[in-house]
Amino acid sequence: LSVFLASPLASYITGALIVADGGQNLPGSGAWTQLMAAGMTASQIT
To answer: For 18, left (φ over 0), alpha (ψ -120 to 50), or beta?
Structure first.
């Protein structure tokens, strides 16, 4: 994606919102998602 955005072809993209979160919002994206869910649950309880 970054190579495309740096190319002249990217001049055709105007007013676009491109989310680059490193895959954090993907379902089941590993231990990080599980830790975030556990932390949010603990903070909501206390």
So the answer is: beta
